[in-house]
Amino acid sequence: MTIISAPKGYRAIGQASYxxxxxxxxxxxxxxRSFLLVQGDAKGFVGTLEGEIVLCPLTLENxxxxxRQFPWLAPQRIPEGKPSFGxxxxxxxxxxxxxxxxxxxxxxPIFAQQSVRENDRTGRSFAEVLTDATFGVFREGYDQGFGxxxxxxxxLKDAEDAARAGFTFFTCDPGDHVQDVETLSxxxxxxxxxxxxxxxxxxxxxxxxxxxxxxxxxxxxxxxxLYRAGVKYGRAIEHAAEMYFGLARLLPDGFDFEIxxxxxxxxxxxxEHLFVALELRxxxxxxxxxxxxxxxxxxxxxxWRGDLDQFKADLLSHAAIARCVGGYRxxxxxxxxxxxxYSLLADATGGCCHVKTAGTSYLVALDVLAHKDPGLFRDIAxxxxxxxAKDKATYHISADVSxxxxxxxxxxxGLPGLVEAHDSRQVLHVAFGSVLNSSLGERLVSAIxxxxxxxxxxxxxxxxxxxQGLGGELHE
Length: 476
Ligand SMILES: [Zn+2]
Fold this sequence. Notes:
Helices cover about 45% and strands about 15% of the residues. It is an alpha/beta fold.
């Protein structure tokens, strides 16, 4: 077996791995650019020859070549029987920390998870997101498998792009096709329902029918309930089914498909959930996960707020429907920092649940900077505040900038407090795209590389608190 050594001018990151008489390891050059070193048979890799070694840039092509040597590097579908957890990584640097957060827990990770919106804001592509996650997994030698989630897909074309990049999990967000019914009068609602292609079928199938959901829940569609569900979700269901069958043509060996309606105006009622799930099933769209819009304030980057008893009752209904219609996961979006909910979710679903996070990892990076590089943190905070009016538009948040102290009055040792406090935390959270697209983006990335160990330790600790809430400790 060959023992790999980094050529002059490069330093090794992590351990080397061996397969088929070749050795593989990650290195960085003096400018902190990362490469994969291959010594031995380098067939399928693209790079430059340096003596006995091939120096490969971290591209999707090379990630795929590496996954042919180490099959655990290829994203895979979520196995049944354990909770799953999505780690969005907007910087493309967090996967090693995410891997470490799983230590001791039996939770299936989705290390590559990004929406088109996030990619637009961060200037990344599905291919880059998957590439960063793959090399992060390789670096840690995590061989337990992971998934790749193309989040909040609005159209089939984007879903197909993600499929071609190698994603395995597709989150369909038919939100653009969800119709707001709150403003309709009873007459308007009735007219709108009767104009639907499926009006007759749905009347036959649902009207005044009672559905026994598990032992404790009886759901019945009265006229108004059915009209509301049909008008609100009718087009969204067709859209989701089209995306599903489009993907099925491209990926005949199967894929994970999630329906998310979490970004709608009003909470998803149990009746609406049941209706959407049954209609997708009736069309043969096999989804593995469904994200309702839960009750209460599910804001980005902070804990959930609202009436916990109401949340629990609502959650139990959604969980019972998921079990009864067909064993799909109940998915919690905007799942960052929802510490009061994880164990409730895991208990209600018997672990058949999924949580998505993204922003909280970016905030961990900022928290590390607040401790280690207060100058840069101040610049980022200042910039984020200035961009807030524009950035908050597409987010569900309640930050009030007037409650944030003037930054010049905050001493350096008070800066981490800004990452903690509700208002400033949300301001920092929503500005990620503006920050990463400005000259601060590069400064942030190189500053984090400088304090990489602290960054990964902080990620492992913070995401570990999330994972811990889902339970499922591994016992030796
Ligand atoms: Zn979502």
